[in-house]
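Bug #77: duplicate submission created two jobs. Keeping one. Sequence:
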Amino acid sequence: MHSNRLALGATAVLNAIVLSAVMLHVPAHAQAEGALPAVQKSGAVEYLTGGVGLDESTAIKSASGQWPLSLVFSVQADGRAQFASDVKLEIHDAKGVLALDVTATGPYLLARLAPGSYNLRATLAGKTLERKVQVKKGASARVELVWPAGTNQSQS
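Kept job's structure:
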């Protein structure tokens, strides 16, 4: 009978540990989802932009695989890239029609674009980078735009 009480006690302790672990995990997951910036709309294209704080950048990186296009903006500095914000972005489709015209408020921008070929034109402090990207159905395209060292973010 003494061993049964020990077994029950050990089981209760184990259940408490598992429950504690689950409870600790749930708020962290909910917190990450709550850290996503609001989804906005420009014409027919939904997008979100941000990533300035750790919680928000973690939430955006986590959600990026669910968006057809994921962009990251940075400036080369001291041999590594530093995040950039206030990037003026234009995305044109293959016919040259403007699909999205927005200023990114943080280093990340996620966009729900229809499958197809697009031309990106991103401007930071008067310096423009251009890229082509192919958005495929059921996939997520990621483009990193890195400006050269010395690009002054304080200019517009």
